[in-house]
Amino acid sequence: MLAKSLIDVLIRITPETRFSTGSCRTRIFLQAMDGWRCGRIPLNDAIFAVKTSDEALDPLRVMTTDKEHAKSFLRTRVDACRILPTLAVLKTAEEVRSFAFPERCVIKPTHMSGQVIRRHNGEPLDLDRILQWLKMNYYRVWREANYRDLEPKIIVEPFAFDQSKPQEAKFFCYKGKVKIIKWTHDWHSDPHRMLYDRQWTALMRRCSAG
Fold first, then answer.
1. pTM for this prediction
2. Together in a domain, 153 and 70
3. What is the mean pLDDT of residues 180-193?
4. Buried b / exposed e across 143-156, counting CB within 10 Å, b at 16+?
5. Into how many domains does the chain fold?
6. Do 150 and 67 reside in the same domain of the chain?
7. Alpha-carbon distance 31 to 35, whole Å?
8. Range(s) of the domain holding residue 89
9. pLDDT tens digits, one per residue of 62-71
């Protein structure tokens, strides 16, 4: 609780805009966040450098941070059949309330990370949670500048490959080359995440939820 209280104080006193490359207060904020969560300052210098430099504000990076616009970019690179269809993009509270969500769908904010609702078989939806997404500025919480000016929207999609238990692979790249793969294979088992190198050699037995 103490750590959360300190984080809340930091969020209130640090500015909403980034003053310049290498902003001292932005660096202090990110270091404090990582230090409290991990008990140490992480060594992921590549990601830290992006967060605290103007690279995060590169127009292409900002555009592809938005889940809707990322699909538009992908259409210029791969066949449309490889891109998950979009069922709807909702921009206002009125659109959310009036939209007939499919009984089976995935619902996400386009302007945030880590939030998702999976509707498997017509379960009641938490509309208050979805509406709250439209009020959120992800940058204000995590200081990832590429999220700062994104328009709040809700995207509705079908399940990829019509899976009942979605699997997820994340490819972490450094200088354009895959270095680590994180595979999430079952959200309800333990362990359910594994780390691999680019040859799919296991790096550790399990990894945390972060």
1. 0.72
2. yes
3. 76
4. bbbbbbebebbbbb
5. 3
6. yes
7. 6
8. 60-162
9. 999 999 999 9
